Amino acid sequence: MQGDSPASDGRSAQRPSVALKLRALLLATFQSLLVASVGSLVLGALLAANAATGLSVPWSAAVIVVYLVVYWRWLGGTWPPTDTSAARRDLLRARRVPVETMARAFVAGLIGLGALAGLWISCVELFGGGGNPTVSSLLGYPAYVVAIAYVMGSLNAPVTEEAAFRGYAQTRLERAFPPVVAVILSSVLFALFHAPTQGFIAWKLLFFFLVGALFGTIAYRTKSTIPALPVHFTGDMLFFFVIWPADASRSFAPSAGADLPLVLSAVAAVVLAPLAAFALRSLRS
Q1: What is the mean pLDDT of the chain?
Q2: What is the pLDDT of residue 13?
Q3: What is the pLDDT of residue 133?
Q4: How far apart are CA 153 and CA 232, in angstroms?
Q5: How many distinct structural domains can be found in the chain?
Q6: Which domain holds residue 263?
Q7: Residue at 13 is within a domain
Q8: What percent of the chain has pLDDT over 90?
Q9: 6 in any annotated domain
Q10: Is residue 169 part of a domain?
């Protein structure tokens, strides 16, 4: 018994206590929702201000780009307060990675996005409730205004949400929980963040959880928030310009029966999901 105690004490000393785990979860929740919410509120305020001053000159597009650069750099430790610079830099985890790693992450992300797109279309046809409130709220505006708004949203979401959930949340959670648990928890936070605008619908919550798991796995495997940025941007552009606008015209399988889009999307989800998992496993930091 005495021979076992030092090793036992060493192992227990390395394990975060329940109190530390709870503290990490609470801080991860608060900080990630705050970081992501600030980004969404600023985007909404800029779009509203641009609409109030006339949409013929879409000046808000340039402003949001500057804002996102400043916001990302501040979250990464640049500028005061200097006493939090190191902590902010560690939490954002915006480490540069080799070009090969970026390429592998992007390919794995694209495969994952294909599976998720198939899942979304299948769920819309099976359960209904597709679309995005942002898309419907822009109906009636000129096409170029809608396109600019989509691109702005597709830029804003990767920067603020990757910083929030794969940076500030997941980095902190990985210190207190096993990696799989940290990715799961950050993905739950990501799904809950989207619920107020996308709806507290079971399949949508699952969808956004899986999206978070895709980006979270990329961040964990590469030890950086940067590789998921282009994947996130590509996914938002795909859904804003292609998938969400088409949701209103999709058939409802329970009443109309299964059609070709449902079959193809279901096959894509089933086939691409394991390929994405394999590609993600090949990633290294």
Answers
A1: 93
A2: 53
A3: 77
A4: 11
A5: 1
A6: 19-94+102-281
A7: no
A8: 84
A9: no
A10: yes
